[in-house]
Amino acid sequence: MTMKNPFASLAPAAALLLAACGASQPVQPPLSEAPLAGSSIGGPFELTSSDGNTVTWSDFDGQYRIVYFGFAYCPDICPTDLSRTAQGLRLYAKDEPELEAQIQPIFITIDPERDTPEVVGEFTSNFSDKLVGLTGTPDQIKQAADTFKVFYARGEDQGDGAYLMDHSNVTYLFGPDGAPLATLPTDLGPEAVAAELAKWVR
Q: Of 74, 97, 179, 197, which has the most beta carbons under 10 Å away?
């Protein structure tokens, strides 16, 4: 006599229940619960792109924005953060290509003396074709950094005109309206970046 599995008939129902509950979907808290919701980080700026055109914050209206301040001659931290951000975006695109297309990553230099539009363009191209590189006059950079609550200062001269820059290495995520949402955990790797994007981009 063949014994029937008493749970066999429950499998299709369980699968439907899991699908209905969105078991494979990331948990998305309300945007009002985003870590940076309601803060005064970010706002208008006027800078110069790698092709020499004037770029303003409002040019990105309607897009989620990832913003990182750094400098092209940075030996380690900036390249690591930008690389992990770009990799995180590519991982996120595998699951959510349409949403990823709405995200614009932006790099803003804090070393305008050396980071000309050409230098910024060459630097950002090492990480992603999507990454927009921006520079400007010292006053424009200071205004932007102050608006985004970013610290930076020139370090000691290392000889032959070489120097490093001390700066905050925070990767911000902003919503389509320009409101701050969260910071991306680049220190934890690309997978953590993709997971954080999945929480707030919708």
A: 197
> What are phi and psi for residue 109, nearest 5 degrees?
-75, 150
Query: How far is the C-alpha of 66 from the C-alpha of 180, rounded, in Å?
Result: 10
pTM for this prediction: 0.86
How far, in Å, are 84, 116, 118 from residue 59 at the CA level? 25, 21, 21
Residues 40-91 pLDDT 10s: 999 999 999 999 999 999 999 999 999 999 999 999 999 999 999 999 999 9
CATH class of 61-200: alpha beta
Q: Residue for token digits 């975006």?
A: 89
Sign of CA dihedral 70, 183, 173, 22: positive
Q: Which two tokens stand for residue 62?
A: 């309607």
Look at phi and psi of residue 54 and say left if phi exceeds 0, alpha if psi is from -120 to 50, else beta: beta
Q: Read off φ and ψ for residue 69, nearest 5 degrees.
A: -100, 135
Residue located via tokens 């630097």: 123
